[in-house]
Amino acid sequence: MKILQNVSLKPFTTFQLGGRAEYFAAVSTKDELTDAVRFSRQAGIPYMVLGGGSNLLVSDDGYQGLIIRNQIKGVSRYEKGAHIFLGVGAGESWDDLVAYTVKQNLHGIENLSGIPGSVGATPIQNVGAYGQEVQNTISWVEVFNPATMEFELLTNRQCEFRYRDSVFKSGSGKGLIVTEVGFKLAKEGVPNISYRDLKQHFNEQDIRPTLQSVRDAVLVIRAGKFPDLNQHGCGGSFFKNPIISRNQLRRLQDVYPDIPHYSQAHETYKVPLAWVLEHAVPWKGVRRKHVGVSAQQPLILVHYGGGNARDMKRLADDIAHSVRSELNILITPEICFVGNF
Ligand code: EPU
Predict the structure, then answer these.
(1) 207: pLDDT confidence band, cut at 50, 70 and 90?
(2) Cα separation of 248 and 267, whole Å?
(3) What is the per-residue pLDDT across 102-147, written as a single tens digit (0 to 9) for each?
């Protein structure tokens, strides 16, 4: 493992934004990961682990410390009853894994097709799309615990999965580094096409869905909504969908009777922010030179090239501020911020 210095982080993030890392190490084995953490301890500098870089906005000033790029690969497989268990290295590409499971006729993550990033990032934010969340197939997560310098296994329950959230994002799990994710996939099943866009797609086509046709459908739907990462930068949904109280929903419905909402635990409701940004606090399609709000899906902020992270952050702050002042709804970013803003 080489420790490099002064490395631009732009090419390692799908936003294609941000400054340089003071130190940078790509690790492909657990030993290398341990060595990298040890290096940062000895040098007295902080470190941060980077996966596929698809959920990060790196400051223009970069990162003072060591960026560890997790490239631990490998897939192990075993069969038990009606299931196949896959232990997948955190540095594997998520979408390559989905494609593999679809080819192998294994059910459970097909709706999560086309999502950029690495396998190790998926439990952290409990990646979800088109009616599936990874929490439904994750059996275990192997982590490196820097406090003990040991590897540990967490069960699904210990991961404390919630909407776009897990133990790894806060509290006791915050410093843990994901090294392998164990998936429990079913050998048989019926694809879930209940999500609105999928239902529409299959009704129009009137065919019986297979794992492959669900994957293809998701890829088509996503292509219509997400910028092509070869052309523009983006980091998926910039914000989480807000979860509001019944009273808040009632007040909104007085003004916007058609506002979509999905019932959650404890009499709360999830509201699609994309709807809000199209109909209530219009930001859809707004462009500020090098950055803007997608005209296809306003939850996605786009870097059109030549921009900087500060402009992107300012755009996000302005959106959050206007949603708060006009609707009294607090929205929180899904994107992680790296460095000083
Ligand atoms: N909508 C509009 N206008 C638009 C787009 C959407 O009004 O331009 C409304 C529609 O009512 C639509 C609803 O918003 O039914 C939801 O839109 P969509 O299905 O595109 O999903 P989303 O809630 O905006 C979430 C995830 C995405 C995931 C999609 C599909 C979050 C933060 N985002 O977006 O995940 O791909 O559902 O399941 O939960 C990500 O996390 O990075 C991400 C892309």
Answers:
(1) confident
(2) 11
(3) 999 999 999 999 999 999 999 999 999 999 999 999 999 999 999 9
Assess if residue 46 is contained within a domain: yes
Closest CA to ligand 1's atom 24: 274
What are the C-alpha distances in Å from 228 to residues 120, 234, 235, 285, 300?
23, 9, 11, 16, 12
Q: How far is the CA of 20 from the centre of ligand 1 (A)?
A: 32
Ligand 1 interacting residues, C-beta cut-off 6 A:
129-130, 196-197, 225, 236-237, 240-241, 260, 272, 274-275, 278, 284, 297-299, 334
How many domains does one find in the chain? 3
Domain, as residue range, for 27: 4-70
Q: Which two tokens stand for residue 331?
A: 């929205």
What CATH number should be reported for the domain holding residue 108?
3.30.465.10
Q: In 3D, which of 336, 282, 281 has the Cα closest to residue 309?
A: 336
Residue with the nearest Cα to atom 38 of ligand 1? 129
Q: Which residue numbers are catalytic?
A: 164, 237, 334
Atom of ligand 1 nearest to the CA of 296: 8
Protein residue with least CA distance to atom 33, ligand 1:
237
For residue 282, give every residue at least 6 positions away whose Cβ sits within 8 Å of its Cβ, in sequence order, or none.
Answer: none
d(CA 130, CA 192): 9
Burial of 306 (0-12, 13-18, 19+ CB in 10 A): exposed
